[in-house]
Amino acid sequence: MKVRITNGLLIALLINMVYAKAIGMTQGIMAREVQGDMWLATIFSTLQGILVIWLVAKTMQRLPRMNIIEHHEHLFGKWAGKIVALLCLLFFLGAYGGVMITLVYHLMDYFLPEVPILVFVVAGTLVGLYALYFGLEVIGRLAFVGLFAVAALNILILLGSMHDFDVRELLPLFQSGWINTLLASRHNDTDWGMATITAAMIFNHVKNSDVWTRSGTLGILYGGLTVVLWPILEAGVMSPEVTSQYIVACMQLARTAEIGQFIHRYELIMVIFFSVSALVQVMMSLFCGSLAATHLFGLKDYRPMIIPICLLFGAFAYWVVLDHHRAMYLLSDRWPPFALSIAVGLPVLTFLLGFLRRKKWQPKKASEEQ
Amino acid sequence: MNNRRRWLLATLILALTLTTGCLGKREIDDLAMVMAVGLDPGDQPGHIRITAQIARPADVRGQTGAPTAGSGSPIWTVSGEGASIMEAIRSIARFSSRRVFWAHNQIVIINEKLARHGISEIVDFFSRNHELRMRTWMVVCSEDARQLVSLKTGLEVIPGVSLDKVFRYSQIVSEAPRTDMRTLSASYTSTSTHPVLARMRTRDKLINDGDKTDFGAKEQVELSGTAVFKRDKMVGWLSMEESRGLIWFVEPVESRVIVLPCPDDESRPTSLEVKSNKFEVTPHYEKGRISFDVQLDAKIDIVEIGCLTERSHSELMPQLEALADKQLAHEIQAVLKAAQKTYGVDCLELGKTFRNRYPAEWQRVSAQWGELFQNIEVRVHVRTDINSPVLLQKPMQPGK
């Protein structure tokens, strides 16, 4: 029997898929481009994400029992499905690199600089591998716990930063120009892009297809709202110039935060909450990668692909994070055009091309059936 | 046990060995916890000397006040020299039995000569240090920094903690800006504002009760004044009066004392306390001319009238308000003169204020802001309002 999750768990998964990398790495990248307008770029990006997830949900509602790969296979044949499967596999391979950059650099650079990178990559991948065997529903429930972690983290950073917040650092609005701000939003687009393609892969596991558009848009909206707090605080507390100096800007904000004199150093508590979201991203990247590989190789179940995918993704992630300079170059220069061409291009293409094969998904009229 | 469970068990055991968290561990008794650090020019040209105040846990008193072990000093102050900060720190490892740990460092004290030479190395090093927090206080001193670092100052057992608390509670004094790594990084990387750092110096403030002839021999450390920087090099000091004027611009002022001559006897003092205030800087741009209006509205209380007077509070208040207006305006004008004329650096965030209000105009003037700033007109308006005479209906007078 196919696993079915509720729309609530879908929302939780989408929020977690957006959150960790968006606050960890993306804000520093955007600050280097548009300085104090990074929070405006995040808002622009969230609005774009809402549009795309709506499109994805609408498309998947045509054939609610199929994921995007099966969708193409049904409409355009086996090889079309395999091409889409390959694209999705490559997408999640790249996404996994970004997720691991986030996880490894948060933990290694700030807490355990002497631990070999391999330990972080292997530990993260093994946790993901373990979760994969239990399936989507278990990951969804962890994502639900992750919602509380996200809320706790946001509350903690607010409590520790508000007393130093200076709204003048956010001014003037659109200091980099609105076009540059819009262009900079492409970095945050890659974060909700992970969520939308994940949704395209798992919508067929979600109950009650009538409300997919609502739950998808709510997931991206809430994800964006939880993220936008961070660039606002980073600019207001540290200043946009200082935020742009750092690779992991959110950790620098966390190290600046203090609650009174008794709890004046609590970034270790915060990183625990952060890690829940990061691990959900790890798990879902591996899960969707395994699904894509299953379709690519024509298998029935994703479980035989778990270990090969974990090995492939783990090796790639290790290569990426080994060199900070290469990692940031790939993340800021190479990843956005590749990710967005799939995250936006694939749903749009599926939606439009679906009209060419309308008969295959439109419900038959009662008179035709008679 | 079937194959799947065997694989799962093997995976779990492998995961356990990798997730125990022992890699990169450092036991607490392997750490030399730095509580304060001082930076001076080294004995060799181009070298830097670093002096670290390290806590000695065995000699820090317990809650009962009794030493827990030994009767030595609670701190161990050591010095190392090198061509760079990192080399100087590593030179300490040659004789330190523990590894230097920065996470508890409260304060970084920079010697004036080093500050005048440039602090880019210091800012870069401490920004990259993942142990040091951005809450670490940053100060400049005119004496040797190692002298301040090695002083047993303050009420606390560990002097570094004393220095931290001097800063934390300096809000009620407001005579030196509360500069930490966060504020220094922000002003250092700013495109318009130049950094300032608080000044620390030694003063003979401690009275030794045990030896009456030893009065003033034990020096204490106090905050007094400000160091002004142009980009990364220190260019001069701001006096106490100028520092009091500066603080309005760079941070919120919670409270401070205004000491005035008593209206009825100028040789005696009157003290007023600022309880709340609103400070606003408004830029103007008219016909290519930039100007600013500085408006300070303060609510103050009378906390001390040191002279004999027959007059009531309501009769004294208007006079005291006028004197307070004049004093506060004078302090602000003093710092404006220092910033514009003496040093020619915008350490008052006027450029940032202008940029926020006139972003398009800022694009045109930003490249010449350093020169323009020196001749900008700044109008100062101060309005104080005495709210309360605090407990007393009328000034205390002798009955006879």
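Chain B touches chain A at residues 8, 11-12, 14-15, 18-19, 23-24, 103, 127, 130, 133-135, 168, 182, 185-186, 189-191, 352-353, 355-357, 359 (CB under 8 Å).
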